[in-house]
Amino acid sequence: MLPRLGLAEWVVLAVAGERPVHGFAVAALTAADGELGRVWQIPRPVVYRAIGRLVDAGLITAEAVETRGGPPRTLYAATPAGRGHVEVWLGTPVPHVRDLRSEFLLKLAVLHRHGRDATGLVDAQRRELAPIVAALRTEQDRATGARDGGVDEFDRMLAAWRRTSAEAALVFLDEL
């Protein structure tokens, strides 16, 4: 079973699973102009809090202290358990359409960093999303059909937004 981690912890754990890394390097990757920051930015203080939580959870460990070129920096590496959890996380589709923009794209970015094929994740995500789209279509049909039954205009707009967003996500997955 996957531990309950926030997205910042998952990203830090995934990066620490690649090779020993210090917090400043992770913060650079997740800054606005960083490789992962293009998808989702993590402020430096949040990176360091995530490191602390991951150490406390036994998912990463301090490996060494780097002393060249500036202040000493502790290098952290994922434990075998941490690497195993990352593998499961990377293959698990996100449960909500709203999380595609952040968590799903980050999973794709991490898989790309590792030079790995994302087809399994994309297929799993499509299977996760298809019934959601069907349910949202039914919800919108109900909201539109209930125009005289007291459903207010905002309910119809919200149903349309949710359905359209989910359908657009399916189109995106199909393009991948």
Brief account:
The chain is mainly alpha-helical and 176 residues long. It has helices at residues 7-16, 23-29, 44-56, 80-91, 100-113, 119-145, 153-175, and strands at 60-66, 73-78. It has a two-stranded antiparallel sheet with strand order 1-2.
Describe the structure.
Helices cover 60% and strands 7% of the residues. The protein is mostly helical. The protein folds into 2 domains: 7-95, Arc Repressor Mutant, subunit A (Orthogonal Bundle); 119-175. A two-stranded antiparallel ribbon has the order 1-2. A hairpin with a 6-residue loop joins strand 1 (60-66) and strand 2. Helix 1 (7-16) packs across helix 3 and helix 6 (119-145) runs antiparallel to helix 7 (153-175). It is elongated, with a radius of gyration of 20 Å. The protein starts with 6 loop residues before the first helix and ends with a helix.
Specify the helix fraction band. 55-70%
Give the class from helix and strand content and strand pairing.
mainly alpha
The CATH superfamily of the largest domain is known as Winged helix-like DNA-binding domain superfamily/Winged helix DNA-binding domain
CATH topology of the largest domain: Arc Repressor Mutant, subunit A
What fraction of residues sit in β-strands?
5-15%
Residue runs with pLDDT of under 50 for 5 or more positions: none
